[in-house]
Amino acid sequence: MKKKALYSAVMLFFTLLLGGCDYALFDSAGVTGQEMGDTILLTMGLMLIVVIPTVLLSIWMPWKYHTTKKDSTYDPDWDHSTKIEFYAWGIPFVIVAVLAVIAFETSYTLDPREPIESDKEPMTIQVVALDWKWLFIYPEEEIATVNEIAFPVDQPVEFLVTSATTMNSFFIPRLGSQIYAMAGMENRVNLMAKEQGEFRGISANYSGFGFAGMRFNAKVTTEEGYAEWLASVRNSAQVLSDEEYARLMEDSRDHKVEYFSSVNPLQFKNIIESFTGVESNGRSN
Fold first, then answer.
1. First-to-last C-alpha distance (Å) of the chain
2. Is 141 found in the same domain as 176?
3. Are residues 135 and 264 in the same domain?
4. What's the pTM?
5. I want to staple 177 with a disulfide (CB 3.0 to 4.6 A). Which of 16, 58, 67, 112 is the partner?
6. Is 88 in the same domain as 175?
7. pLDDT tens digits, residue range 55-95?
């Protein structure tokens, strides 16, 4: 009775533990995320072709030939089986070959730098990782935000990503690929949401004391909703001046959302070039 109670308690513990998991990769709202989830499930299914029979045989063989059974003697009169060799080597060979083809194809189709096919022109959002917050710049709109972005549904978005401090990683789990943010470098990731909603964005690379609170909201709306969001940002009294940017460069935890109605359209370029020794007049130090 005690063993049964202990078993039930252990099962309940793991059930509650897993109950808090967020299966974002398998409940994607983005084109890229959906392809990634399908690829993961396909590769898992192929590998289970080997795993399941192996597990079943590891249970059946000891039970079949246990020494307490009368017919447990196993004394084959052969030293080679072509049939066993075929299954032992042939099936793994086929699975590895199929997985190799999938890996080769998805290396190109899921390349984060590749534009997403759409009848709409991609919009650009520049991303800067700070300590410990995210700065987003809309170069065409000449606005900026902290820890919040918005874009229309079914709109391809090209994120240009860099860091003004330590290495980081930009990730919206329900939309798709993560990409690293590195100081003095520009990385790119293309995403497109296929449904409306508010999705959690995170830092996927440990970056210090305030890492846990380095989160942002990605709002996917209608065209009208996006226009209203732009209007609310433009109505902000804050401007991303040099003084304001210097304030943002200071370490902060759980930073609140901020809107900036104006920003230097070359701000992103200047942040990158601040690590390369290039001055604003084009000369090198």
1. 78
2. yes
3. yes
4. 0.76
5. 112
6. no
7. 898 888 888 777 666 666 666 677 778 888 888 888 888 88
